[in-house]
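I can't quite decide. Please look over this sequence plus structure tokens:

:::
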Amino acid sequence: MPSTNRFRSRLSATRQLASCVAIAAAVMLPVNGAYAAKPPIVVTEGIKAFRLCTGSDNLSHVIEGSIDQKAMTTVSALHFKKTPAHSTYDWHAAPEEQYVITLSGTLEFSTTGGENFVLHPGEILLAQDTTGPGHRWKLVDDQPWRRAYVLIKPGDKSAFVPKAGSAAKGC
């Protein structure tokens, strides 16, 4: 009888191994299948952006557009700032050319050229109105304005693409 016990022991071990392999395969297949089933990410359009610029009339103007996701811009510095909800900032020019990436807060901007626009979280402001009286803003929701300033290296080209049909406004 000892050979029968040995056979049963081997059969039991083989069944346990087969069960473990089956369980592992059942667990792994859906995971691998889930990754394989996802389509590749395709960039279809840029990130919504607004460009502030100084026109030939020495007033600030806004041009709506987007950021080209394939373009590269050389930057010189990055810093962050938080301003309390309901804050305002009166007329001022941008201190230097910079991207302002809004993380939270919704703002209404006004230009000295008489234009208004609303900037939402996730949208980009390209501030290039470094001369003239500039622009002003006010927070219009209950969130603080959290943002990242990304300073563009002097002389480098931005990744801003004007919206089709948007007027150059002398900028």
In short: The helical segments are 2-37. Residues 2-37 form the longest helix (36 residues). DSSP finds one helix and eleven strands in the chain.
